[in-house]
Design a protein that fits this description.
With 253 residues, the protein is an alpha/beta fold. The protein contains 9 helices and 4 strands; from the N terminus they run αβαβααβαβαααα. It has a single domain, classed as 3-Layer(aba) Sandwich (Rossmann fold). Strand 1, helix 2 and strand 2 form a beta-alpha-beta unit. Helix 2 crosses helix 6 and helix 6 packs across helix 9. The longest helix is centred in the middle third of the chain and has 18 residues. The protein is globular. The mean pLDDT is 95. Bound molecules: zinc ion. Zinc ion (ZN) binds next to helix 2.
Length: 253
C-alpha cells in the first residue's frame, strides 16, 4: 500500500500536484529487458531500478514514474571483445552473445535518446518539475553516455537539476559485473520466485563467459581468467536471499 502511494500511475491529479509542491522530486526508473544468464529474469536492471526508486521515495520523498523498460547497447569495441574472450572483429551487441537462447530488447541508441529526451521535456514543460532523478539499472557504456549527455544539456539549457543514479554503479565497491552474484542475490531478495539456479550447471563446473553471457567485473576491465570463466568470488550460484538483502540496503543507503 505504501508503495502504491508513491507511484504516479496510481495517483489522482491533486495528489501529484500536492507531492510536487511539497517535495518536488520525481524519479524515472529505467533499464532494458536484457539477457542475464539462464537463471535470471529479463527485467533485472529495470526491476532493481524500480525497487530502489520506490524505497528512496519512501525515505526522502518524491514520486516514482512507471518503470520504463528501455535502454540501449551497441557493438562492442575490439578491446572489450578481447577482454571477454571473443575475436576482435566479432560483431556482438551488448550481452547478446551467440549462444543465448533469446535476444535482449535493446532500443537503438538514437531511439533511446529521443525517448528519454521527450520524457524529460514533458516532466519539465508539462508538469513543471525542476528536479528529476533518473534511476538507471543498466551499465551499458553508450546507455550511460546518452543519459549523461542529456543531463548536461538539460541542466545547462533548461536550468533544471537531473540526477543520474544507478543501483549497479553508484555505491561503494560496486562492480561492473553482469548476471554474477551481486545481481543474482539482489533480485533474489526482492523477487525470489523469479530465479532458478538449477538452470546453471552444478559446481565445480565453471561458468564460461561465452556460454552463459555471465561476466565478472575484472573480466570486463581487461583481466579475464585463463579459461574465460566467472571468478569464484562472483559466482552467481553462491547468491542467497540474506546476502541480497544486505546489498540492496547498502545500495539504498
Ligand atoms: Zn544487469
Amino acid at each position: 500500500m505504501e508503495d502504491i502511494k508513491k507511484q504516479v500511475q496510481f495517483l489522482r491529479p491533486e495528489q501529484i500536484i500536492k507531492e510536487r509542491e511539497e517535495n518536488g522530486i520525481i524519479y524515472a526508473p529505467i533499464g532494458p529487458l536484457e539477457w542475464h544468464g539462464p537463471h535470471l529474469p529479463l527485467g533485472v536492471d529495470p526491476l532493481r531500478a524500480e525497487y530502489v526508486a520506490i524505497e528512496l521515495a519512501k525515505r526522502i520523498g518524491g514520486i516514482v514514474l512507471p518503470t520504463f523498460y528501455f535502454g540501449t547497447e551497441r557493438e562492442r569495441s575490439p578491446q572489450m571483445l578481447k577482454n571477454i574472450g571473443f575475436k576482435e572483429d566479432d560483431y556482438i551487441i551488448g550481452m547478446d552473445f551467440p549462444e543465448n537462447s533469446l535476444k535482449s530488447l535493446y532500443f537503438k541508441e538514437e531511439v533511446f535518446a529521443i525517448f528519454l529526451r521527450n520524457l524529460l521535456e514533458m516532466l519539465i514543460e508539462k508538469w513543471g518539475y525542476r528536479f528529476i532523478i533518473v534511476v538507471n539499472g543498466h551499465g551499458g557504456e553508450n546507455h550511460i553516455t546518452v543519459i549523461n549527455r542529456l543531463k548536461k544539456e538539460f541542466e545547462e539549457e533548461k536550468k533544471v537539476k537531473i540526477l543520474h543514479i544507478s543501483p549497479a554503479l553508484n555505491f561503494p565497491n560496486s562492480k561492473w559485473s553482469h548476471a554474477t552474484k551481486e545481481e543474482t542475490e539482489t533480485i533474489m531478495s526482492i523477487y525470489p520466485e523469479t530465479i532458478d539456479l538449477k538452470k546453471l550447471p552444478q559446481k565445480p563446473e565453471k561458468l564460461k563467459n561465452l556460454k552463459f553471457a555471465i561476466v565478472d567485473d575484472l573480466t570486463f576491465r581487461g583481466t579475464p581468467t585463463d579459461d574465460f570463466t566467472v571468478r569464484n568470488e562472483e559466482d552467481p550460484r553462491d547468491a542467497t536471499f540474506e546476502s541480497g538483502k544486505v546489498v540492496v540496503n547498502l545500495i539504498i543507503e
